[in-house]
Design a protein that fits this description.
Immunoglobulin-like; single chain; six-stranded mixed beta sheet; 477 residues; mainly beta; six-stranded antiparallel barrel; 4 domains
Length: 477
């Protein structure tokens, strides 16, 4: 393998950001000249190479000394001129490197100078090429991906990556890994914990030598990596460090409102090599007392993610509330070795008359459920294509001139949201950009498409805002 992987993705990275591999290969130019031996050169002969104001002479002797400019009759010039005792000659090696046997090319594109080869041996036949710069090889990659729910890795096809004159090649995996992504969809009110497999991938790499009639050579398989279906802000992504040993995949604010029968969940990512973690709930009562209860101990492994039920009824909080007390707030605590690593807080409110629950893949690659108060306006919308019909010469006033060719009805919704704080707005805006959104209807998660082309985030002087959200079912009527 003549190239090296200079940069690799983080073990867990974000699939919608620019990320991937950077390779370095010294073989980026066509052959400038090469040397062929009809027979072994005789002792006392030499090869002299001159270019610009530089020169190097190799003498064929019975036994080479340590000068780095002597060659025995048995020396294989194509193998040894760069790799054996001749490496000492830095004048030659600083500018030229061997490429495929006896081929040589110039490393620095600005130093392309005339070359002259002399030899007293008739068996030494120099050949020249007037190729200054070309791509004698490319990198070919084949991407293999396994999404949550897949039984094995699936090839996503081949891609060709050119090498620039500095010997660099980049393999950008942004958006390539998300094709075929299977979102995780639990049952409404699911109360058990479950593993959610993160998308896993690896590459096979080859060199491709079109100028030499060589197809794919030097196969290498990379390590396995993981990708979260998410996009961090571009100003944050390059220097972002995933916290250890685990984190909640959500940008939600520190507290959220919830009613007792609402579905709620957290997505936990394991970011280091730990064997288990604990889930606890801290209950706050109206008499200003609190109590922490154990929910579950979950065996885990690095680079796994888990569905954590977080709704009031899902955690059966009523059964864990002492008689005569009322829980008005609770926290989900994610604990490792008796230390709370992260948490989420929920305030229990009465379910409003027009309360709705939406679930979506958030901007951090986890799943959020959000309780929304607002009245929904439902409309039947259509996509209409009209065509002009042919009218006979003997037409009358009632003959139709136009005909509806296509009618694709769908149910659209407009939701005026109740007063939201800036923190709630900043979280809710992720739903507008999310590729996977569900609306809870009749104890089912129904897929919808957000059709809002803008989302009002309010005036900077206003503490509360009432934005509008439009959406439709993700299927026709």
């Amino acid at each position: 393998m003549s190239y090296t992987l200079e940069k690799t993705p983080r073990v867990v990275d974000f699939a919608l950001n620019p990320f991937g591999f950077e390779l370095d290969s010294p073989r980026v130019k066509g052959a400038r000249f090469w040397i062929i031996f009809d027979s072994a050169p005789g002792v006392g002969t030499y090869i002299e190479i001159n270019w610009g104001n530089k020169s190097i002479r190799y003498d064929f002797v019975t036994q080479a000394d340590e000068s780095g400019t002597q060659i025995t009759a048995s020396t294989a010039l194509d193998d040894d001129i760069m790799h054996s005792e001749l490496i000492k000659n830095t004048l030659f090696n600083a500018t030229w490197e061997r490429w495929f046997g006896p081929y040589y090319y110039e490393k620095n594109i600005t130093d392309f100078l005339p070359v002259e080869i002399k030899s007293t041996s008739p068996s030494v036949i120099p050949h020249y090429s007037d190729i200054k710069f070309q791509d004698p090889l490319k990198i070919v990659s084949e991407l293999f991906v396994k999404h949550n729910g897949d039984s094995g890795f699936i090839s996503k096809g081949f891609a060709f990556h050119p090498i620039d004159y500095l010997g660099k090649a980049s393999i950008n995996l942004k958006n390539r890994i998300v094709e075929g992504f299977n979102p995780y969809l639990p049952l409404v009110g699911k109360s058990s914990f479950e593993l959610i497999n993160i998308t896993e991938y690896y590459l096979k790499l080859w060199e491709h030598h079109p100028n030499n009639g060589v197809s794919l050579v030097d196969e290498v398989t990379t390590s396995h990596y993981f990708a979260i279906f998410a996009r961090l802000p571009y100003r944050i992504f390059p220097t972002f460090t995933i916290p250890l040993p685990l984190l909640i995949l959500s940008n939600a604010h520190s507290w959220r409102e919830i009613w007792k029968d609402a579905h709620q969940e957290l997505t936990i990512l394991i970011t280091s090599d730990i064997a288990s973690f604990d889930v606890k709930a801290k209950l706050y009562f109206t008499d200003e007392t609190d109590e922490t209860i154990d929910i579950e101990t979950i065996a885990c492994a690095q680079n796994e993610s888990y569905f954590i039920p977080a709704g009031y009824n899902q955690l059966d909080i009523d059964a864990n509330t002492p008689d005569g007390k009322e829980c008005y707030r609770y926290e989900i605590l994610i604990v490792y070795e008796s230390v709370t690593i992260c948490s989420a807080s929920f305030i229990v409110v009465e379910k409003p008359d027009y309360g709705k629950v939406f679930r979506f893949l958030n901007a951090f690659g986890g799943y959020d459920a959000i309780c929304i108060k607002g009245m929904e306006n439902k409309k039947l919308k259509t996509n209409v294509v009209e065509a002009e019909t042919s009218i006979p010469l003997s037409y009358n006033a009632t003959d139709a001139a136009y005909q509806k060719r296509s009618l694709n009805p769908y149910e659209g919704f407009e939701l005026i949201l109740g007063s939201l704080t800036k923190q709630e707005l900043n979280h809710l805006k992720e739903i507008v950009d999310s590729p996977f959104v569900w609306k809870l209807e009749n104890d089912e998660f129904i897929p919808i498409v957000i059709t809002s082309d803008e989302f009002d985030l309010g005036d900077e002087l206003e503490d509360l805002s009432s934005p509008k959200l439009t959406y439709r079912y993700a299927f026709p009527c």
